[in-house]
Amino acid sequence: MRKAAFPLLVIGSSWNICIVTAVALNAEWVRTRAAGGQFDSFPLAIRIIYGIEALLMIGQIYFGKLLYDRNGAWSISSWRLAQLLIALYGVSALLNALSRSSAERFNAPFAVICMWAFYELVGRAKPIH
Asked: Could you tell me the residue range of the domain that residue 10 belongs to?
């Protein structure tokens, strides 16, 4: 299953990057898929935050590739970051699944995919150093 984790992380993250980039660009099609579907036009502050989030998600893919290449976490810091991402994607999946917007609920499986991928990539043992 570990071999499938990184390609699935790329797929799940690609959808998420599309969503957050579309919010940053204030695309009309994404208004029901993000922020609970509550905005007719995204405020500038939210657009900036989502733009930064898109860049961070690209970094998450790179981090996932490092985990894959190194057969798991290589330090306590990398293990903690992976655990944080697993938790954040878990919360994201839950919040998306509980959304009143059916379009936003569609995002939940992609968050679950990313959560599972990081779980597989981080490895089973916590590094000692």
From this structure: 2-122
Q: Is residue 21 one of the residues assigned to a domain?
A: yes
pLDDT tens, residue by residue, 103-118: 889 999 999 999 999 9
Other beta carbons within 10 angstroms of residue 129's beta carbon come to 5
Residue 33 domain-assigned (yes or no): yes
The count of structural domains within the chain is: 1
- The enclosing H or E element of 114 equals helix 108-122
Q: Which amino acid is at 73?
A: A
| pTM (2 d.p.) | 0.90
Q: How far is CA 20 from CA 17, 26, 56, 81, 120, in A?
A: 5, 10, 11, 21, 25
Question: Is residue 42 included in any domain, yes or no?
Answer: yes
